[in-house]
Amino acid sequence: MSFCSFFGGEVFQNHFEPGVYVCAKCGYELFSSRSKYAHSSPWPAFTETIHADSVAKHPERNSPTALKVSCGRCGNGLGHEFLNDGPKPGQSRF
């Protein structure tokens, strides 16, 4: 699933079944349902990745509190990591 495609009804926003979220392009494991939480954004929100190399992070040019995130295997764009915007102080939100 690619997290950058929002057309007014993100199907995984309120999906809380146990499982693994994978890259829509290559199938690499990105996030576990155990790290997913409810958030007010229209996209699913996670606190951590499955593997240390699940995602690649790059600075967002105009935002010091966000990083661009892509699949760690194939480079497919996934959205952003928002620093210190997770459910607990100091946690980030993917």
UniProtKB/TrEMBL annotation:
Keyword Zinc tagged: yes
Role: Methionine-sulfoxide reductase that specifically reduces methionine (R)-sulfoxide back to methionine. While in many cases, methionine oxidation is the result of random oxidation following oxidative stress, methionine oxidation is also a post-translational modification that takes place on specific residue. Acts as a regulator of actin assembly by reducing methionine (R)-sulfoxide mediated by MICALs (MICAL1, MICAL2 or MICAL3) on actin, thereby promoting filament repolymerization. Plays a role in innate immunity by reducing oxidized actin, leading to actin repolymerization in macrophages.
Keywords (A to Z) from UniProt: Cytoplasm, Cytoskeleton, Immunity, Innate immunity, Metal-binding, Nucleus, Oxidoreductase, Selenocysteine, Zinc
Cofactors named for this entry: Zn(2+)
Keyword check for Cytoplasm: yes
Gene3D superfamilies reported for this sequence: Peptide methionine sulfoxide reductase (2.170.150.20)
Main location as per UniProt: cytoplasm
UniProt GO molecular function: L-methionine-(R)-S-oxide reductase activity; metal ion binding; peptide-methionine (R)-S-oxide reductase activity
Protein's name in the database: Methionine-R-sulfoxide reductase B1
Biological processes, Gene Ontology terms: innate immune response; protein repair
A family per Pfam: SelR
Swiss-Prot/TrEMBL catalytic activity: [thioredoxin]-disulfide + L-methionine + H2O = L-methionine (R)-S-oxide + [thioredoxin]-dithiol; L-methionyl-[protein] + [thioredoxin]-disulfide + H2O = L-methionyl-(R)-S-oxide-[protein] + [thioredoxin]-dithiol
Gene: MSRB1
